Amino acid sequence: MRKIKEIIIHSTATPEGRKTSVEDIRSWHKQRGWSDIGYHFVVQIDGSISRGRPVNISGAHCKGKNKSSIGVVYVGGCDSEMKAKDTRTQAQIDSLEYLVGYLCATNPGAEVFGHRDFSPKECPCYDATSEYKSIADKYGR
Cα-Cα-Cα-Cα dihedral of 108, 40, 10, 36, to 10°? Predict the structure, then answer.
């Protein structure tokens, strides 16, 4: 089993309200030459959580951090003009909090970050590190 040190939150960089499936993301990533979807979990607009790449396999979501992390993406992250915006629905906010708690509980000591903490991108369009700090602290960060 991989040693997980980071849980990294992303957005799909798609317009607010546009449904995006795991298969859509998998197709985009395969077009880039990747073997599969780069994320381990996808949080849909309605809050449902879909599995992406198996957790026991390194992701393809954050350069330099893939071997030691789990990638979580929420659908959205852009306004209608494709400018970065926190577009999370209440259902996504609730599901992300639940999923981060579960991942921290099953990977004690893992820290939670936004993709923007490792890249010059705005992804995930909110401060995930601060938002989930109390959850990570609860599980021994």
Answer: 150
State yes or no: is 62 an active-site residue. no
What gap in Å lies between CA 105 and CA 108, rounded to an integer? 6
Q: What pLDDT, in 10s, does the model give residues 109-135?
A: 999 999 999 999 999 999 999 999 999
Q: Decide if 97 contacts 132 (C-beta within 8 A).
A: yes
Catalytic residue, from 40, 61, 65, 115: name it. Answer: 115
pTM of the full structure:
0.95
Catalytic residue at 10?
Answer: yes
Residue 29 CB coordination number (10 Å):
19
Tokens of 66: 């893939």
Q: How far is CA 85 from CA 11, 73, 88, 96, 97, in A?
A: 10, 14, 9, 17, 19
40 classed as catalytic: no
Which of 137, 138, 115, 141 shows the shortest CA–CA distance to 126? 115
The whole-angstrom separation of Cα 42 and Cα 60 is 14
Distance in angstroms (rounded) separating the CA atoms of residues 92 and 74: 7
